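Handout for the seminar on molecular recognition.
Each group receives one record of this type.
Step one: identify the two inputs.
Step two: read the structure output and locate the region that could contact pyridoxal-5'-phosphate.
Step three: write two sentences on what you found, then compare them with the reference statements printed after the record.
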Amino acid sequence: MTVSRSDSVVWLNGKIMSEKAATVPILTHSLQYGSGMFEGIRAYATENGPAVFRLDDHIKRFFNTAKMKSMDLGYTRKQMSDAVIEVVKRNKLGSCYIRPFAFYDDAHIGMATEGKKVSVFIAAVPFGAYFGSKKSNGIKCKVSSWRRINSNILPVQAKSSGNYVNSIMADTEAIEEGFDSAVLLSESGYVSEGPAENIFLVKDGVLVTPSVESDILLGITRDSIIHFASYNGISTEERLVRRDELYSADEMFFAGTAAEITPITHIDGKKVGNGRIGSMTSKLSDIYSRIVSGKEREFSGWLTYVK
Ligand SMILES: Cc1ncc(COP(=O)(O)O)c(C=O)c1O
């Protein structure tokens, strides 16, 4: 049985400790200036106990983010992967969301990070559908008035806390206007991605997703979908996607670790296709659920079991 939230533990700088005791001073650099960085990972319950989905790829991205930000984590990839497993195990979690986070653990005023202490924690929480019950009916999105940041402003491939202010602006605007989420366009006006999700369209049976030129985060779920769709005979066009394609698509969905595969049934108040969840979206979603729960042997290499 999962330990109660009040007894949950985190890994902080190499030690397992109570989540309640893991606190930071109010002037912590990363709290003031958004200089932290993180990963978002999911583990799923399987017949053989919990399994973390694409752990190595998430940890690799965590280290790439640190490199882009000149942050020395002070741990090896193996140490971080082992720590993720340890946190899931110690909290007796099944399906859950895992948050590795690195930040400047130094209380001072000023931008300077040189020589400042870096702390790393890993927390894990029970987690269901990111969009809650809306996931099974489809969500309503709007094209944001905010453009997606580009790589000359902030490194888009880094999962850097500061990048998410852009996502939060778009998400907040959408929710304030009665939508569930937003689709951001790139600086050049092409479809980029959701606040924390990649986007896929289906048109005349073809799966389409914006390419890297549109300042997307090259998501691990996106990559998984491209791979398993291809294995199932569905090829994906990775290319520039025009805004008007959103309005003529037959199906549309978000893809991400948190969102998994979430159907988008309305965009800017218009129905996507017939406004119901499409057959390609349902099919890919079923395959995804089977893979993450260990039921597709071909993709078992993506799972790291918590033993
Ligand atoms: C901006 C952004 N795009 C896309 C994604 C999807 O990436 P992944 O599938 O690796 O979770 C995320 C989530 O991490 C994100 O934050």
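Reference statements: The first helix runs from residue 29 to 33. The mean pLDDT is 97.
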